[in-house]
Write a structure and sequence with these properties.
The chain is of the alpha+beta class. The strands form two sheets. It has a six-stranded antiparallel beta sheet, with helices on one face. The two termini are 27 Å apart.
Length: 143
C-alpha cells in the first residue's frame, strides 16, 4: 500500500481517517488494488446477521458489497479532494450466497472526465460467482 498517496481511499487505508461504518459492518478488507489498471479485489466477512429467513445472505447485503467493490476501484484513482458517488447500480443475482468470506473484484470499464462506468463480481466462499454488477459514478470535488 502506498502510504504517501492522499485522498479518501488512501486516507482510510493509512488510518488517517476512520473507515466508513458501512464498510466496517460488511467486514471490508483490501486484498489488492491497482489504481493504474483501475482494478481492485476486496473481501467481506458475511455472518449470520446478513441472512434472510431462508438461510442465505439477503440480496441487499450483496448489493452493498458490490457497491463497496466497484466504488473503491474508482475512488483509489482519484486525486485528494475528490469523491465519486454512485449514480446507479445494477445487480444480477446468480445463485444463493452462503455465509463466510466473499471476494469482490471490481474494475473501471470506461472513465470519462466526470462520469465513469464500473463492473465487477462477487464470489462466494467456494469461489463461484454469486452476483455481478455494473454501475455508473460521477467524479465530484469535496466542498
Amino acid at each position: 500500500m502506498d502510504r504517501q498517496r492522499r485522498g479518501v481511499f488512501w486516507d482510510v487505508l493509512a488510518g488517517r481517517v476512520p473507515a466508513p461504518a458501512a464498510a466496517v459492518t460488511l467486514g471490508w478488507e483490501l486484498i489488492e488494488v491497482d489504481p493504474e489498471a483501475g482494478t481492485i479485489e476486496v473481501a467481506f466477512a458475511a455472518d449470520e446477521r446478513f441472512l434472510n429467513p431462508t438461510g442465505v445472505i439477503q440480496g441487499g447485503f450483496l448489493a452493498a458489497m458490490l457497491d463497496d467493490t466497484l466504488g473503491p476501484a474508482l475512488v483509489a484513482t482519484l486525486d485528494e479532494g475528490q469523491f465519486a458517488p454512485t449514480l446507479d447500480l445494477h445487480v444480477q443475482f446468480l445463485r444463493p450466497a452462503l455465509p463466510g468470506r466473499l471476494v469482490g473484484r471490481g474494475r473501471i470499464v470506461k472513465r470519462g472526465a466526470d462520469v465513469c462506468f464500473l463492473a465487477g463480481e462477487l464470489l462466494g466462499p467456494d469461489g463461484r460467482a454469486v452476483a455481478v454488477a455494473s454501475a455508473t459514478a460521477r467524479i465530484k470535488s469535496l466542498g
